[in-house]
């Protein structure tokens, strides 16, 4: 009987201790409100990529030049070792401004009948291929380099006096007079390199 009287208080103490432990495990509440969740964190866009390059101001606004509103001429400038240099001028003789974008196609005109002779011009990347907008009475230009024909092996040298020039974006040519120049009467040889059309500074 003594053991029973001693064991009962111990059992009551153990039960009270369990209740206290259970209460300690319950989450704390504030005035009975349900704990709120954290707001979503906004995603920051990646900023490592460069911004898109805006289009050239004239592109898509000013119409392309037509062959009818262009007058094309050639002016020699200087010579370097094995090359002659000159400028093609594309004058806007029309009644509205227009633009030329990119590279003209230039080929020698043969001595007989001005037929195309040799390979067409390659591209000289000395100027960017942005739109060159010429106002009424204005112009754009392109640099032309001519390799000396006598320096090219297997070249059948002939003398020519014209270029056949197709402006950028067009499919018809103009006959452009040039000073007497040596060329190659060979279908697989090219001597010409042309830059993209550009507006000369100060024009």
UniProtKB/TrEMBL annotation:
Which residues are the signal sequence here?
1-21
* InterPro entries listed in its UniProt record: DUF4232
**Domain DUF4232 span(s) in chain numbering:** 65-195
What keywords sit in the KW lines? Signal
Q: Where is this region: Disordered?
A: 32-61
Q: Kindly name one Pfam family recorded for this protein.
A: DUF4232
Name of the molecule in the record: DUF4232 domain-containing protein
